[in-house]
Specification:
Layout: E1 10-13, H1 29-38, E2 43-46, H2 58-72, E3 77-82, H3 87-99, E4 104-108, H4 117-128, E5 135-139, H5 141-144, H6 150-159, E6 163-168, H7 175-182, E7 188-190, H8 196-202, E8 206-209, H9 216-227, H10 231-251, H11 253-263, H12 280-295
Parallel strand pairs: 1-2, 1-8, 2-3, 3-4, 4-5, 5-6, 6-7, 7-8
């Protein structure tokens, strides 16, 4: 029986709350999850780059998987972010995602090491042998220094049917070729809110949104309009979103998200150092941009 594919066109890369002194704040998870629930977010990525995954210990990330699942119940599709310098740590995270009852994992490659294609193949093979969960591979050369070549991807997807999607943050030139080889049932997703409009032309099927933490309804509306071929509608919504997105990127997207959520009484917490909190002037600039956005909707 064929495994169902849980990787849908719209999800949000959820943030991870930390206390001011840098401890993981699991107490903030129910407030965050309720924010996503109220806004009818269909799927969440736990402990990805937006979730500051590489600032956390393996134990912290495992506890985060369980705590989010506890708060979310079955109201969302949940993907566990799995990536580690050591293969054994990635195996532990993948097994933990399955034991927590998550719906799939996003498997990233080890950062900093610049592994070979053969080593990447072996890394993925090891994780696949320790979990039965559906897997979305995450190719993110700017962050890892490693680029998953199309030939390696096709080999892995052919060998392991549980590899059911790709999140591509590198070269877009091969996406259409990947779709031709693996079919339209193999989604290719983006993580770039800024390029959401043009991504469809490259062959992307959807997005794991970051700014969706703040404006989930607008980003989901853009995603739906694109999937329905309503490009004018998508562009009109994005034109309203773009100035706020630009300000948040300029100030730092994670610190901006957490500040705005905290201002709304949602327990988003702090970022871990070296990411800092916003200065008084930065808060004022962000507040002005956010107010302008709200007044235009």
């Amino acid at each position: 029986m064929k495994m169902s594919n849980p990787f849908i066109p719209f999800s949000i890369a959820m943030i991870t709350p930390f206390t001011e002194d840098g401890n993981l704040s699991l107490e903030g998870i129910p407030s965050l999850v309720e924010h996503y629930r109220k806004n009818k977010v269909p799927a969440l990525l736990i402990s990805g780059s937006t979730g500051e995954q590489h600032s956390m210990t393996i134990r912290e990330r495992v506890s985060l998987f369980h705590e989010v699942k506890k708060a979310a119940s079955d109201d969302f599709l949940l993907y566990g972010g799995v990536a580690a310098v050591l293969t054994k740590d990635a195996i532990e995270l993948a097994a933990a995602a399955e034991s927590a009852g998550l719906n799939g994992i996003m498997l990233g490659f080890p950062p900093y090491l610049r592994i070979s294609q053969q080593e990447a193949h072996h890394y993925v093979e090891k994780i696949c042998s320790h979990t039965s969960l559906p897997i979305m591979l995450y190719n993110n050369p700017p962050r890892t220094g490693f680029n998953l070549e199309t030939e390696t991807l096709l080999s892995l997807a052919g060998q392991f049917p549980q590899i059911m999607a790709l999140k591509e943050a590198g070269d877009t030139a091969e996406i259409l070729h990947v779709k031709q080889q693996l079919g339209h049932d193999f989604p290719v997703l983006s993580g770039s809110d800024l390029t959401i409009i043009e991504n469809k032309d490259y062959g992307y099927d959807g997005i794991t949104s970051i700014i969706g933490n703040i404006i989930p309804n607008e980003m989901q509306a853009i995603s739906k309009a694109i999937s329905f071929g309503e490009s004018d509608t998508a562009k009109a919504i994005f034109d309203k979103v773009k100035p706020l997105l630009g300000t948040m990127l300029e100030l730092g997207i994670l610190r901006s998200i957490k500040h705005l959520l905290n201002e709304q009484g949602i327990h988003a917490g702090y970022c871990r150092e070296p990411i800092s909190i916003l200065s008084v002037d930065e808060k004022a600039k962000l507040a002005s941009s956010y107010h302008t956005f709200l007044s235009g909707n």
